[in-house]
Amino acid sequence: MQLLYKMASRSAWIARRFAKSNLHGKQKVLRSCSYVPAFRGEVKSQGDVRKNEHALQILHLNCSGSDDRSWTGIGSETFFKSYKKIYPHHKIKEINLWDKDLLKYNLSHVASKMRMVSGEEQAGDKENLTAVEDMITTLYSADKLVISSPMWNYGVPYVLKQYIDCIVQPGLTFQETQNGPRGLVTGRPLLLITSSGGDYTKPGMVHLDFQVPYLKVIFALIGFTNVRHIYIKNTSHDKREHLLQLIYKSVSHEVKQF
Ligand SMILES: Cc1cc2nc3c(=O)[nH]c(=O)nc-3n(C[C@H](O)[C@H](O)[C@H](O)COP(=O)(O)O)c2cc1C
């Protein structure tokens, strides 16, 4: 909580700088960012999301294991098979978060962004942030978001955290207001497909789960407040057959809600 508080205070400062340097903002939802003109592609505001019910775009952030022993892999595959039967025209775009070419967000990106928002842009800053902006554009182009992720050390695998560090950007995906941060990527449902060796719904275990509560908080910050969850729990102890049944049951329930 303290960390989020610090982050919110810092973003309040950045958002004020964004507001001051708003010279060209055209996109309604992204108005207060000085480097909005660098945005490309299809950016959907809340009003545009799910306008064309027949050709929705589903973005799948996949950080499952790569083979057929991955429980979150089985979970997402089962989900999308069922989903496709109901909505054959919807497009599913997958980003494999293990892709080694995905941006590694680092201090040079932070420095470029800080210079741009404070009006002290240097040569190369805009280019340095292009990959971040592309990732955010892709996020905005989705009508629905699915994240599949195993639990690693009570939290999320680092590749998912890295993605989050790229796309959680003040002025672009959330904005500071007098009433606190306001998410900008609104109107989209989020489905979490997670898995853990233990069962974190059990008394005495709940407080150790820093994965799902974290994902809910951080994605709510940028606007995803409608969250569904398929939880494949206790994979280190439960029988495979039972886990598969659990997946089929959760999928058939969630696919109708999503
Ligand atoms: C690096 C690593 C860390 C893990 N940490 C935890 C953990 O903290 N708690 C837990 O219950 N399971 C943990 N696990 C087990 C996985 O969460 C579990 O096997 C899960 O079902 C894996 O999903 P997957 O098959 O989709 O990769 C860990 C596994 C790995 C590889």
From TrEMBL:
In the UniProt record, does the keyword RNA-binding occur?
no
Query: What catalytic reaction does the record list?
Result: N,N-dimethyl-1,4-phenylenediamine + anthranilate + 2 NAD(+) = 2-(4-dimethylaminophenyl)diazenylbenzoate + 2 NADH + 2 H(+)
Signal peptide, first to last residue: none
One Gene Ontology molecular-function label: FMN binding
Keyword Flavoprotein recorded? yes
Gene3D superfamilies reported for this sequence = 3.40.50.360
- Known EC number: 1.7.1.17
User: In which domain of life is the source organism classified?
Assistant: Eukaryota
Please name the SUPFAM superfamilies in this protein's record.
Flavoproteins (SSF52218)
UniProt keyword list:
Flavoprotein, FMN, NAD, Oxidoreductase
Put simply, this protein is called FMN-dependent NADH-azoreductase
* Organism per entry: Exaiptasia diaphana (Tropical sea anemone)
